[in-house]
User: Which sequence fits this backbone?
């Protein structure tokens, strides 16, 4: 609790980012229970999946429906929408404009566009399209810890002139410390005075919640999280921690605890995410967790000394 | 990495605080491997157990030898002491003065006295004794989140006049947020300008590492941690995270990863600690984890909604 009121909103990414863990193999009942829990808990947004097109992605057949959200399907999943708004993420080059209905005909409220720094221009074209169709929009710039500031400054110029509502600082590799997060937020605020901000954190170094608290203190308004931290590799900031600690009287942790008890604990027995040493290592080395994810799929999954040696030996070429 | 050099030192508490998890059932080989790992990693102190007297404690028979350190035994465990110093913790009323050899006859370098605020006077008497016998000393004030500031100010007066080398801020319940930790450190610095400070954190809300980073930024010199976070209930700040991130060139994470791979991962299969929802709940409610520890010993261990209801229903009396 804090005397300072909090104007931030939570965007729960359990299905979307968590889907990267289990190939979006969530039952309809699971997703409904999550929606109702978040709605009761007072969480403002639920990101219910990706709005990419299966035509534009390899290996699409095996994925669950939350990877390629369909508006008709969505209506059967959430027949009685509550206060919690629905969000979808799209990736550059993987979205078919024809799939995007006007907001008035969709259950979705928010469409978020994720991109790397070099694709900000393309991302903003998509943002513009979604904006015209009536959606709230965000631009999520990934892997900021690997971006040189001159590139960032160039991107800021495009963003400033765009219609995007929120701009996200995404700690893709879970490598930012609170002082780094603080630095980036100040930089974004300085160059984007006309935009609202969001943060998406990863928990490689057990700093996802702490970095999100830094964002709250600095007036960032959209906070991404997942129930029980479920998300790719080390996972995200935990929704239950935000609901428990943000100074907003409307939040209620009880439904989130219920979701954890009924669904997340059993799911965690089958699927893996969280603070796991190979993910800590990619976080400390400030690189993509894909090498650690590959390691976790082998019998050597806990051989972290060899793994560390491979990533830190200069002669060995490895790609980020 | 940071441009600012770090004058802090790590006190690894794996055996002492981790012993609260497994009743100090660590093999000599485990403890030796840990000592050698910490020594190679550049960790300054290893807290190898408690120096309480078995005569003054109930249920002492079943505990491993690290609960009642004996100087002769210690010499057989660490026949070749390296640079890493050895530490032991004592509790008020559980230590027999006659057990404490002069430092010149012991492998121990540091003796730490843990107490609640109302026992600071008694603790300082013990500190004085250990100081006279040649040891470095710390005073570890527990459960500070439950202490009123007038009591703290009174305690500061006693501490200022004492011979104690370091005074610890102990977040016993894992309930402090970085802003709280920052507040307490400022308070300690203001009232104890002649003392060095230490922090001991718990990870109930995934803030142990973040709170320790706050301490580093504020010049706190002794940082408690455990390998793989092993400690009572939610555990402590992770030694591997400190070794990976503190700006001190001498630290080497590789031996710590080796300890985790060889010993901690297998141990975690048998014993439980870390971010577990009932511990998160006692952390958010700012109370001792004993109710959560009791719950985890029952078949209802994951029934966190009922647990939450019990702790938050006003009619139900529960003691802290």
Assistant:
């Amino acid at each position: 609790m804090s005397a300072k009121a909090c104007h931030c909103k939570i965007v729960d990414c359990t299905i979307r980012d968590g889907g990267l863990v289990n190939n979006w193999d969530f039952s309809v009942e699971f997703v409904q229970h999550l929606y109702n829990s978040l709605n009761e808990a007072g969480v403002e947004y639920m990101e219910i999946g990706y709005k990419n097109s299966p035509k534009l992605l390899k290996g699409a057949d095996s994925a669950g429906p939350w990877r390629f959200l369909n508006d008709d399907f969505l209506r059967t999943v959430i027949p009685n929408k509550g206060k919690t708004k629905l969000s979808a993420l799209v990736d550059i080059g993987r979205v078919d404009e024809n799939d995007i209905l006007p907001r008035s005909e969709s259950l979705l409220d928010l469409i978020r566009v994720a991109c790397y720094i070099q694709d900000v221009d393309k991302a903003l074209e998509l943002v513009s399209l979604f904006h015209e169709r009536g959606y709230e929009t965000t631009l999520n710039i990934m892997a900021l810890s690997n971006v040189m500031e001159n590139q960032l400054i160039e991107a800021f110029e495009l963003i400033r002139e765009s219609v995007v509502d929120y701009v996200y600082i995404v700690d893709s590799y879970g490598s930012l410390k609170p002082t780094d997060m603080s630095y980036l937020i100040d930089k974004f605020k300085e160059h984007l005075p006309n935009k609202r901000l969001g943060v998406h954190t990863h928990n490689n170094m057990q700093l996802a919640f702490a970095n999100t608290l830094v964002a709250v203190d600095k007036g960032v308004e959209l906070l991404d999280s997942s129930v029980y931290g479920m998300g790719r590799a080390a996972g995200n900031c935990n929704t239950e921690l935000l609901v428990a600690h943000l100074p907003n009287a409307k939040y209620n942790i009880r439904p989130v605890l219920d979701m954890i008890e009924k669904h997340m604990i059993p799911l965690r027995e089958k699927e893996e995410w969280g603070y796991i040493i190979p993910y800590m290592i990619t976080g400390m080395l400030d690189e993509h967790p894909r090498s650690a994810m590959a390691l976790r799929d082998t019998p050597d999954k806990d051989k972290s000394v060899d793994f560390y040696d491979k990533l830190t030996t200069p002669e060995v070429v490895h790609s980020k």
Notes: The domain at 9-270 of chain A is CATH 3.20.20.70 (TIM Barrel). The beta strands of chain A are 9-12, 45-50, 85-91, 110-115, 136-141, 166-170, 196-200, 222-225. Residues 11 and 45 of chain A are 5 Å apart (CA to CA). Chain A has a mean pLDDT of 94.
